[in-house]
Amino acid sequence: MRSIAIINQKGGVGKTTTAVNLSAALAQRGHRVCLMDLDPQAHASLHLGLTLADGEPSVYDLLTGDASVADVRRQIDENLFVAPAHLDLAAAEMELAGEVGREIILRDKLAADHEPFDFLILDCPPSLGLLTLNALTAVEEVFLPLQPHFLALHGLSKLLRTVQLVARRLNKSLRLTGVVFCMYESGTRLAAEVSTDVSEFFAGGSEPGCVWADAVNFQTRIRRNIRLAEAPSYGQSIFQYSPHSNGAEDYNNLALEVLGESLPELESAAAKLAAPLTI
Ligand code: ADP
Ligand code: MG
């Protein structure tokens, strides 16, 4: 199983949109996916139409109580399962403040779960607090969504330091494996410049053993697409809400890259190059 935490301590960069639609794209391609909502705002749960009634088990009960992953997880579509959050998750951080081993509660709960999945995807809150730490100790991969504006790299060193520290002290398997641009305005100079800066940052200067040494800058840019912003209000993934939109195409391509498969456009470009020239 690949386990991936979608992390950026900034809000509004596309974490939830990516967690939900990447999960849906992978599930649609026949992979069994469990999406876990670690944000008290519960946006990923709401995006997929899950509103919890009082007393229904959520990630809060997983982290603070006796609930198991199986108690919390529910199937919402073929191959797609969600462990939903609720506003009360905001209290978990305070409640667990004095607890020994509070950073590895999620890891232990997941280790006790034997349901087979191909992907576990964690949607994280916009902070580097205890909930994000629980995600970082529980997964092997971090994906970093970035919005290409001039502050994209601001705060990145703190995030990378946190991931590096967790990798050193708590989770030897942790690596930052992917950077994905969200809300990309194709054709603007700013977006192109920021993505070049980011590529250079991740390509250069990382010593071996550094957690982002093998990070991939995904070639798929998630373009700004109003359908992606509308889909959550209908409780649907982009594939249910608008399957022919740019948003659906981009998240489908991202899923192909995550799976290590080649992208349709690149295939056709390569085919054109390989084809003999006819005059
Ligand atoms: P985060 O989880 O990092 O806070 P979200 O995924 O919730 O970010 O995105 C912030 C807002 O931007 C949401 O309203 C979302 O619907 C919208 N959004 C995200 N990605 C796109 C996109 N590619 N095009 C248009 N709107 C987007
Ligand atoms: Mg979010």
Automatic annotation (TrEMBL):
Residues 1-175 form the AAA domain. Its EC number is 3.6.-.-. It holds the Pfam family AAA_31. The keyword Transferase does not apply. Keywords: Hydrolase. GO terms for molecular function: hydrolase activity. InterPro entries: AAA_dom (IPR025669), DNA_Partitioning_ATPase (IPR050678), P-loop_NTPase (IPR027417). PANTHER family: P-LOOP CONTAINING NUCLEOSIDE TRIPHOSPHATE HYDROLASE (PTHR13696), PARA FAMILY PROTEIN CT_582 (PTHR13696:SF52). This is Soj-like protein. It comes from Lignipirellula cremea.
